[in-house]
Fold Winged helix-turn-helix transcriptional regulator.
Amino acid sequence: MTLDPTDRRILSVLQMQGRITNAELAERVNLSPSACHRRVQRLEEEGVIAGYVALLDARRMKRPTVVFVEITLSGQADEVLAAFEAAVQRIPDVMECHLMAGTADYLLKVLAQDTDDFARIHRQYLARLPGVAQMHSSFALKTVFRTTAIPV
């Protein structure tokens, strides 16, 4: 799908203000409300807009501790990777899981209440993941910035 400048303006606004009304969005991007609605529908149908969410404040949700966990598996066979990926998706505290190129096979982003809570997560979930040979955890001291907006 080719995105024109109007599509890009729509996407930029929606990434920052997902609850904006269609009338407000149309005004911001210089379209009629009906034309704006059609474009947003097309962007949704084409999968460019994958969904809408509420972004929660981790501190207010009592999950201020960010831990990045590098995991090296015991092997690279498809069944080892598949078993790990299926299991890690069931851990409620894991916010992201990335298959990596480099020294670690996977990089996880985990949110915890504090170091004691991370110890619980480690014991209850991470230490039981299938195929894990090594695990290294790094605690973020400060989040300098965070965004969910993709450049359009």
Observations:
- Helices lie at 5-16, 22-28, 33-45, 78-88, 115-124.
